[in-house]
Design a protein that fits this description.
The chain is an alpha/beta fold. The chain is built from eleven helices and seven strands.
């Protein structure tokens, strides 16, 4: 049983483009029924902000092993810091919050932000200090984006927020408790490396949330680090998923953009994932710089199992809860 402090508080400690918080109820309906019946290993090769991770940690006490990965070292180091040193992180964030909120002019806050951004991009910072700066920048930068230039430096401009929450002590402590309770393994590298952590004999469930393929050349970006995740990378991921599907004890779910909804002739995902279960879910996109272009649109949900098999079970549970 989870400690009461963790229930209802554990959630992403960082804003992340494409985060799944708003989609969790729809994703839950599409989970394999087997997850409710037996122990399993959960692997998330593109963890990002961790909305699905923290949902799974709270929803499934029968988790046998949990492995997360991301190519962004700053992000995976942040997970390690929250797991290992939440008190030190909270202390540093409270100090940054006090410093920032004591500045009364927008220009002064912008100067402080740019100074923290410069420090973040310097070499030699320890993981604890760097994570504190990462969260500070995430809470005060434009739209909560994370983006790197070609040299690997964080380059998001200043955001204009009147009273941002820089230190969310409750969330950090709850996240830390769950990461430790399940002794979550935190990897940094290519998604294909996660195959080494499979349970050879037991049930495995992968959730893939890679950088989304842009709907157009100007609609979005899909590079959170200097290494681009392009169409070739998307095809490599599809090959990896097909390889996993050769084993009966591996179930996987994958999210990505619905390119054919915008352009019916763009069947990129339908082609590379042909033969798999492909559904559409509704999501809100909030990252467009033009507010009039934000709103509801569909995303693809691709699975190597019948994603509707569990839908009636979840709906029954929701009705009981209500």
């Amino acid at each position: 049983m989870l400690h009461l402090n963790a229930i209802g508080k554990a959630k992403p400690f960082i804003k992340w483009v494409g985060g799944k918080s708003q989609l969790l109820q729809q994703l839950e309906k599409r989970l394999p029924p087997e997850l409710y019946e037996e122990e399993f290993t959960y692997i998330e090769p593109f963890v990002g902000g961790g909305a699905m991770l923290f949902f799974m940690l709270q929803k499934f006490p029968n988790l046998k092993r949990v492995v997360i990965n991301d190519i962004n070292r700053n992000l995976t180091d942040a997970y390690k810091v929250i797991k290992q040193a939440p008190e030190g992180l909270i202390y540093r964030l409270k100090h940054k919050e006090q410093q920032y909120l004591s500045i009364t002019t927008e220009e002064g806050r912008k100067d402080f932000y740019l100074d923290m951004r410069r420090r973040f991009n310097e070499d030699g910072l320890n993981k604890l200090d760097k994570t504190a700066l990462l969260i500070f920048l995430n809470r005060t930068c434009f739209n909560g984006l994370y983006r790197e230039n070609a040299s690997g430096s964080f380059n998001v401009p200043f955001g204009r927020y009147a009273n941002p929450t820089i230190c969310n002590e409750g969330v950090i402590n709850a996240d830390s408790e769950l990461l430790n309770r399940y002794d979550v393994q935190i990897l940094n590298g290519d998604f294909k490396g996660t195959v080494k952590y499979l349970d050879a004999s037991g049930l495995n469930f992968f959730y893939f949330d890679p950088p989304y393929r842009p709907l157009s050349k100007t609609s979005s970006f899909n590079s959170y680090v200097k290494e681009e995740f392009n169409d070739g990378s998307q095809r490599e991921l599809a090959v990896f998923c097909r390889m996993l599907s050769k084993k009966d004890n591996i179930k996987w779910m994958l999210s990505n953009s619905d390119c054919s909804a915008k352009n019916p002739s763009d069947t990129f995902f339908e082609d590379i994932y042909s033969g798999f279960d492909i559904q559409r879910v509704y999501a809100s996109r909030m990252i467009n710089a033009n507010a009039s272009k934000r709103g509801k649109l569909t995303e693809l949900l691709i699975c190597n199992y019948d994603s509707k098999a569990n839908e009636h079970i979840i709906e029954s549970q929701l009705k009981i809860a209500l």
